[in-house]
Design goal:
The chain has 600 residues and is α+β, with helices and mostly antiparallel strands. 36% of the residues lie in helices and 22% in strands.
């Protein structure tokens, strides 16, 4: 186990030797190394002045050295060298992340890195951004020697930032225990559109890895590949994450499965760490020792949420928000008559169940689709039984004259003291009423929508807090053709966009500010793979994305073992162009894995 500690003045000569061996590792000749030696020397007085730290292995051997030099708000990564025998073992990554962490603590907002040309791939992979500014003074002996040898240093920068305020408030700034109770949450609504066995929900429980920026333990219903957890930890800089999986067979009650194992329940609840579920349930309340509040999830109902939206709008102050009309119908024939009348009038309609996830229970019907299906009664006969809501369809954004997003969402949470916190807005990918993924990050929500979205989302958060709800929530919107947003539902649980927010907060703190993160729920695989080959594929996707300047994190691995295999993935980058390119490449590579097996 390698750890970082402060260097000691008495080590200065030995550290200089390490630096020179590391520099020589890249094949430089003796003349070049001699020219560099004065600048690379570490003197006893430098250790404190240059904020030098070392990486020490389990045998007490120093295997790396780094320094953080200068004064806020600008500082330099003066040294980062690894003993040649330890290259490729994660020592450089550990030292770099320690420098970034210390820079945040000092108030540094611009970290400058003058990289050896051989190390540019490393700094790109760590999230540093190449800049055009000259890397070193021409008067520097090292720089002069580098230029003479055609090996000029390459300048990078990073923008150190602390963990986002909302993320610190979510778990108190520390680690948490994550309970993947997706199936348990869904099952409490007994909706006909939700799978009774909760098989899809148990796949989505893998998202428990990302319920906060830094987990201490994951509790999962199904077994997960060990290679998956190792890669996720590597990509997000996590250590010491415990995994408790395979706790359920078919039943959705994960919290009860934990309570049935007293030693495990005591370990998880007695750690003093926050216990974070996908969503609140009565069983989770018993496990966490938290009183269950009757009706606290009432706004999971789409009709109840619609009523809440109407009450907020009745008070005024939200001119950028429009509420679509909604009717609760008494029986299928009443719904068919209303749908038929709207179809004759040329109006599109949305049919909704009271509950549902990811768009389940929501059907968008244009007049053409109703006629193609054989009429309103034929449409209704094909839908699951249960209460129905009829809602007017909100037209698209084409009349704004842009290609802006159609589906947006606002995320926030209410803490245990009843304070509502804003997390932010995201753009969702929705196809035919079904959620497919989301993108979060700076500039994702267009300017015309941002103010209306955040103001209305905050108002919903205050109302939820007053109603007694505690936990994560989101508000989903669709954009109309006039630059207004129509709220469609609330989700009183974690969501796909919330996962992207967690990963963005972690990457910003780990690699520097400015990450865009996209979660794609379903990336098709060209073939079912054994676990070892799935690990190899994910490792290859991580390497390929790093070469593009992006970060790949497998989010849902267990779908890869289904008859029609798929993966849930997270991709992050600092520009929309790189993000789009990385996602397209991941999809192509994932689909191509079937080619290695030849024709079926």
């Amino acid at each position: 186990m390698v750890k970082v500690r402060a260097a000691r003045p008495a080590e200065a000569e030995d550290l200089t030797g390490l630096v020179m061996r590391s520099k020589a590792h890249w094949g430089y000749d003796a003349a070049f190394l001699a020219a560099c030696a004065p600048e690379l020397r570490i003197r006893a007085g430098d250790v404190t002045a240059r904020r030098v730290v070392v990486a020490e292995n389990g045998r007490g051997e120093v295997v790396g050295v780094a320094s953080l030099e200068g004064t806020p708000p600008r500082a330099e990564l003066g040294l980062l060298f690894v003993e040649p025998s330890a290259v490729g073992q994660g020592v450089g990554r550990l030292l770099y992340r320690d420098v970034l962490r210390r820079a945040v603590e000092l108030g540094v907002r611009r970290l400058v890195i003058d990289s050896d040309p051989h190390a540019t791939g490393f700094y790109r992979a760590m999230g540093a951004v190449p800049v055009a500014e000259p890397a070193a003074s021409a008067a520097s002996p090292a720089a002069s020697a580098a230029e003479a040898g055609g090996t000029a240093l390459v300048r990078f920068e990073a923008a150190p930032v602390p963990l986002a305020d909302w993320a610190r408030a979510w778990t108190g700034g520390g680690r948490a225990v994550h309970l993947g109770n997706v199936g348990e949450f869904n099952a409490q609504f007994a909706d006909a559109t939700l799978d009774r066995e909760q098989r899809p929900a148990h796949h989505y429980a893998c998202l428990a890895a990302f319920y906060s920026p830094y987990p201490a333990a994951l509790v999962l219903p199904r077994p997960v590949p060990r290679g998956w957890t190792e890669l996720v930890c590597r990509q997000l800089g996590w250590t010491g994450v415990e995994v408790y999986d395979g706790l359920l067979d078919a039943d959705p009650g994960l919290a009860e499965a934990v309570r049935a194992r007293p030693a495990l329940a005591a370990l998880l609840t007695g750690s003093g760490l926050p216990l974070v579920p996908w969503g609140r349930t009565r069983a989770f309340g018993r496990l966490a020792g938290r009183p269950w509040r009757d009706g606290e999830l009432r706004y999971e109902s789409k009709s109840a949420a619609h009523g809440l939206f109407g009450r907020i709008l009745a008070d005024g102050g939200h001119p950028g928000i429009v509420l679509p009309r909604q009717w609760r119908v008494d029986g299928r024939w009443a719904a068919a008559r209303m749908l038929a009348a709207r179809t004759r009038a040329g109006e599109s309609t949305v049919l909704k169940s009271e509950h549902g996830v990811g768009g389940s229970g929501t059907t968008v019907l244009t007049p053409a689709r109703v006629r193609a299906a054989g009429g309103a009664r034929a449409v209704l006969r094909r839908l699951p039984r249960g209460p129905l809501l009829v809602e007017e369809y909100v037209g698209g954004a084409a009349s704004r004259g842009d290609e802006g997003p159609r589906d947006l969402t606002y995320d926030g949470f209410v803490d245990e003291a009843g304070r509502a916190h804003e997390v932010g807005g995201a753009v969702m990918e929705v196809a035919d009423g079904c959620y497919r993924g989301a993108t979060v990050g700076p500039g994702v929500v267009p300017g015309w929508a941002e103010k209306s979205l955040t103001a209305f989302g905050a108002a919903v958060g205050r109302e939820l807090a007053d109603s007694g709800y505690r936990g994560w929530f989101d508000v989903d919107f669709v954009a109309d053709g006039t630059g207004r947003l129509a709220p469609t539902e609330t989700n009183l649980r974690l969501t796909g966009p919330s996962i992207a927010f967690m990963v963005a907060a972690r990457l910003d703190a780990l690699r520097g500010a400015g990450h865009l993160v996209r979660i794609a729920d379903r990336v098709e695989l060209g073939a079912r793979l054994p676990e070892a080959q799935l690990d190899e594929l994910c490792a290859a996707l991580a390497r390929g994305c790093a070469e593009l300047g992006a970060v790949f994190v497998p989010a849902i691995p267990t779908g890869a073992f289904e008859p029609a295999p798929w993966l849930g993935v997270l991709v992050a980058a600092r520009s929309r162009e790189v993000l789009d390119a990385a996602e397209a490449w991941v999809r192509a590579e994932a689909l191509a894995v079937g080619a290695m097996f030849g024709p079926s």
